[in-house]
Amino acid sequence: MAEYLRFRFLFEQMVRRELRQKYQGSLLGLAWYLVNPLVLMGAYYLMFGVVFDQTSEPDYPLFLMVGLIVWMFFSQSLLGAAPSLLDQGSLIRKARFPRESIPAAVVTVQMVTFCAVLVLVGAVTVAYRGTASPALLLLPFVLLALYVFALGLGLAVSVLHAYFRDVAPILGAILLPWFFLSPIFFRPERITEQPAARFVLEWVNPIAPFIEGVRAIIYGGSAPSLATLAYVVVAAGLALLVGRTLFARLQGELAVVV
Amino acid sequence: MQSVRPGEIVLDAASRAFSVRADRGRTLKELVLRRAGSGPPPVRALDEVSLRIEPGETVGVVGRNGAGKSSTLKVLAGIIPLDAGTVTAGGNVVSLLELGAGFGRDFSGRENILMVGALHGLDRAQIEAVTPDIVAFSELGDFIEAPVKTYSSGMFVRLGFAIAAHLSADTLLIDEVLAVGDEAFQRKCEARIAEAVAGGATLVLVSHDAALVERTCERVVVLDGGRVQFDGPAPEGMAFYHRTMGTPVAV
Hints:
Chain A is mostly helical. Chain A has helices at 2-6, 8-23, 32-51, 60-81, 84-87, 89-94, 101-129, 139-163, 167-181, 188-191, 195-204, 208-220, 226-250, 254-257. Chain A has one domain (7-20, 29-257). In chain A, 77% of the residues lie in helices and 0% in strands. Chain B is globular and about 50 Å long. Chain B has helices spanning 28-33, 69-76, 109-119, 124-138, 153-165, 183-198, 210-216, 234-245; strands spanning 9-18, 43-53, 58-62, 84-89, 93-96, 171-175, 202-206, 219-224, 227-233. Chain B has one domain (9-245): P-loop containing nucleotide triphosphate hydrolases (Rossmann fold, 3-Layer(aba) Sandwich), CATH 3.40.50. In chain B, the strands form 2 sheets. A 6-stranded mixed sheet of chain B has the order 5-6-7-3-8-9, sandwiched between helices. In chain B, strands 2-1-4 form a 3-stranded antiparallel sheet, covered by helices on one side. The interface between A and B is medium-sized, with 28 and 32 residues.
C-alpha cells in the first residue's frame, strides 16, 4: 500500500499522458466520444423505433443513449486495457514501478471521458423527461461501482493478454454478441415471458444491472432496486478481487514477456 | 528479508534462466500444440551468483556478450525476478538501462522529466526542485520545451542521463549507455558519476569499454556463462578479462 502511495504522482502523470495522447491532433477531441453513440443511437432508433416499431419506450432515443454510453465505457475500457501493458513494454522492461498503474490509467481515462459524456446526456435526459429526483444522489455510487468493476476486469485482461496474445481478439469477438444480449436497446421483460430467459438477461449478464441502474436513475427518475444496488457492489468487489489476484500472480515475469 | 544499508547490494546464490524462443509472445495455439523438449533449452543468464557490494563501492561488470551482465543489472534493479536465490538492494536504486526509457515522444523535455521522476517514485515537488539542475546539465536550453521527437539522438541521451544523475541515487546501475554522447558530454557524465560516488553512492557499471571501467571502477566482476569468474581489484580483474577474452592488453 505504501508502494501505491509513493507512486500516486506516477499514476497522475500516466492519466494526463493518456488523456493528451487521446485528444491531441484530433480536431473534435472529446466530441468523438459522443459521435459514436450518437450514430449508433440513430441506427437503432431507425431500426427498432421506426422500421419495426417494436418499442413501447417513451423517448426511445434517450432510452437508447443512456444504455449505449454505459456500454461504451465498459467495452472501451476492456479493449483499451488489454493491449496496454504491451504498448508500454519499453517502460516495463526498463524501470520498476507498480505495473497496475498502466491498465488503471487506461480505465481511469475512459471513466473521465464517460463522466463528461454522461453529464451532457444526463442533463438532456433529465431536463427533457423531467426525471430530476433524489435518486440522482445514488448515481455517483453506481458509477463508482461501475468504475471498480471495469478496473478489476481491465487488470485481468491486460495481464492475461501480455502472456497470451489471443486475449484481445477473443475479447473483441465476445463483446459484439455481448452487446446484443445486454439490455441496451430493449428491456428484458419486454422481449421474453420466460422467467429463466429473463433471469439470464437481467442477472447472469454482469453488465446488465449496471445499465439498468444508471438508466433507472437518469431515464426513469427512480432509485434502482435494492437487488440491483447490492448486485453492482458485489460484482465490483469480485471483479477487483479477481483482477488484482491474477495481476499479482502473473506480473513478476512481465518484463520478460512484453 | 535481511536488512541492508542504503547503497548496499547483496546477491545470494541468485539464479535466473530464460527460455529462448523466437516468438516471445505465446498464443493459445502454441500453448495447446507445445510439446515438451521442442526448441533450445533455457539459457542460464545467472547461475548461483553471490555478490556483496558495500555502499560507496564502484564495481565494473565485464564479460563477453551473453555473459549475463545486463540480466544481473535488471535483477538488481528489481525488474526481473529470480528463479532461485535472493537479491536485496538498499536505498534508492536508479537504473540507466537505456537512456530515455519512458520518454513520450510527443511530450516536451520538461514533461518527460516529470514522467521519469514519477517512474522513480518522486512527487511533483521533489522533481520540480531538481528540474533547473537537470535542464542546465543537459545543455538543452530552449529545447527543453520542445517535444523530444524533435531531438537529435545526442540531445536525447543528454536529457536521459541528466535526469538519472539528479535523482539522488544511493545506487546507480548503468548499462553501456555512456558511449553515445559526444566526448565532451561523456567526460561531463563521468565527472558527475565521480561526484555521486564521492558523495557515497554505489556504482555498478556494465561496459565493454575497458578504459572506462578502469577509470571509474575500483572493483571488477568478470561474468561468463552466468557465473562469476573473477571478483577483485580492477587491475587484476581487467588483466583476467583480457586473458580470457584472448584480447591483448592495450599499452
